[in-house]
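ok so i was messing around last nite and threw this chain in just to see what happens. nothing serious, just curious
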Amino acid sequence: MLMSNSARPARLHYMANGFRVLSAGDHVACAVSGARIPLEDVRYWSVARQEAFATPEIASEALAPK
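result:
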């Protein structure tokens, strides 16, 4: 029986120009807000932190020097 990936979080390895799927799923969680980000919508992440962000504003704030 094939299992659907819906509602299953993926594990990704974030690289400078993309990401590699380590564990299949249909979304990742935003590191700040916890919002579900469908894999096809993942656009903002930190390679150093290996975290995804839901919006450019969240990414900018999270990655800004403190």
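not much to say yet. The CA atoms of residues 29 and 36 lie 5 Å apart.
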